[in-house]
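Large ribosomal subunit protein bL20
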Amino acid sequence: MRVKTGVVRRRRHKKVLKQARGFYSGRRKHFRKAKEQLERSLCYAFRDRKQKKRTFRSLWIVRINAACHLHNTSYSKFMHALKSANIELDRKILADMAMNNPGAFEKLFNQVQAHL
């Protein structure tokens, strides 16, 4: 029995080519190239959603460390002092405080200073 795939194939190709919009050159126009690139791109997207979290965490640590060095201490000592003082603030909040509200960070630092 012969199976004709005209409509099904066209729909499948259109779906892939629609997702491949914005790719460069033949990677958006030719089905095979678009499909290959799309598979890679989706793998990168999955991987980078995880890496984004790591990247932001390291950025926050750099910002907190810079603020700590203004008060003549290191990041690790400051974080240890926070844990000793039972202050539970995550790195995102601390980094935001260090960047946008240095006065509040200084108050926090003064609270923790006994534990340093």
